[in-house]
Here is the input.
Amino acid sequence: MLAYESVDQLLGESDVKRFLHVVILNAIRDKATQLEVRFGEEGGLLYYRVDGRDWELSAPPDEVYPLIKEAVREASVLVSPERPELTVIAGIPGARYEPLEAGWLTYQIGGRWIDLAVRIDPREPYGFIRFDIDDATEFADDAAEALADYAARLGEDE
Here is the structure.
């Protein structure tokens, strides 16, 4: 579970958890239906889907990028299915099938909870994390207020 309680609490979080909070709050504020972090050799890409269109966002910071999957695993309730016995007949030699880890992440904002469906492709250094967001509309104002408070505090600190 991730909970936004106040700007002070958010500023006290680790860099990776603060990154997750800000990304999720932005997605909820913008009424996104899906949020995805894609991993590759050169770093990560961040996308979310609003009104059926994918938008590429700023890439995760280099110091946060390698920690994202583990932070999502810690905050979520996941089912990690067993890998079935099978032979991969196409693709990279020695490749193996890795089933997705699936579950949900409960996000608390404004004293209310929203459950985000989570899917993690565990392949390293590749893979992705996908969050499916239902009914972000009813939480959009709370997320916008939280982000405005956060931005104001960051402006004061500079």
Q: What stands out?
A: Residues 140-157 form the longest helix (18 residues).
